[in-house]
Design a protein that fits this description.
- 33% of the residues lie in helices and 15% in strands.
- By secondary structure, it is of the alpha+beta class.
- The strands form two sheets. Strands 1-2 form a two-stranded antiparallel sheet.
- The chain binds zinc ion.
- Zinc ion binds next to β2.
Length: 88
């Protein structure tokens, strides 16, 4: 089974809805999504807690259905986010 790639800053799966970010030289980032990382820099220079709140809000406002949002709000904890490379 292929392991799903996810952004190592916000934890969102990298797929066609959430493209990869870009490095300074224009190549695609292998680790981060376009919302978090563009041209080799963070799009949002937020603290861990600020980023967590921001991401939660973004998920809640996305076009996921209620059921997906329910699962996500259980899964998407600070503990989960701490495991991502950016916050290690
Ligand atoms: Zn991200």
């Amino acid at each position: 089974m292929k392991k799903e790639k996810q952004c190592q800053s916000c934890g969102i799966p990298l797929d066609k809805n959430t493209p990869q970010g870009t490095e300074e030289d224009g190549s695609l980032s292998l680790k981060y999504c376009i919302h978090c990382y563009q041209n080799g820099q963070w799009t949002l220079d937020l603290s861990f807690d600020e980023m967590y709140d921001y991401n939660l809000k973004r998920f809640q406002e996305s076009d996921m259905n209620k059921f997906q949002k329910m699962i996500l709000s259980k899964m998407y904890t600070k503990k989960f986010m701490r495991k991502l490379d950016r916050w290690k």
